[in-house]
Amino acid sequence: MADTARDAEQARPLDEVDRAIIRILRADGRASVRSVAEQVHVSRANAYARINRLIEDGVIRGFTARVDQERAGQGTSAYITLKIVQNSWRAVREQLERLPGAAHIALVGGDFDVLLLVHTADNRALRDLVLTRIQAIPEVLSTRTLLVFEETDLQEA
Question: I need a labelling partner for 91 at 20 to 30 A (CA). Which of 6, 16, 81, 135 fits?
Answer without folding.
Answer: 6
